[in-house]
Design goal:
The protein has about 160 residues and is mainly alpha-helical. It has helices spanning about 35-45, 50-60, 70-90, 90-105, 115-125. The longest helix is centred in the middle third of the chain and has 21 residues, at about 70-90.
Amino acid sequence: MTARQPRFNQTVLIDTTPLPDSIPKVDEVGASSAPLMSASYFIGARCKDYNDDYMMCKTEAHGRGEIECMKEGRKVTRCAASVIEDINKNCLQQFRNHWLCLEHNNQQLWQCRKWEWKLNSCVFDKLGLEKKIPGAPENEIPVHLRKRMIYSRNEPGVVT
């Protein structure tokens, strides 16, 4: 039996091929999972049309379409970045409190409702964006607006 020494490639491979000029250039959103989760419903509210266009493109390309749908994908990214930027400009402290709570509580939204209410109120007042949960029953109070939670506890280490 022969043994072969493993070889590991420690270099980073970067494709330097430029994208076609028809695909618009866009920077990354630049946020980790907690801020993205905190802002996700507001991103969904403002960027719904762009998301729908992107998903329609991917559906028509039968799950492929990496290059064909790049233009729509870039629009989604640009829209999401604008939402994060607007929230940072107008509701920075509430946003930071909410995503820090999510970060410290394993991304569990129910643990951070107190901070979420403050963020939702600020974003609605200053940006006009409202959190709506897709598929929630119309005749019930949405889970994020209920004053009495089945599961709750105090959030440690978050500044008010």
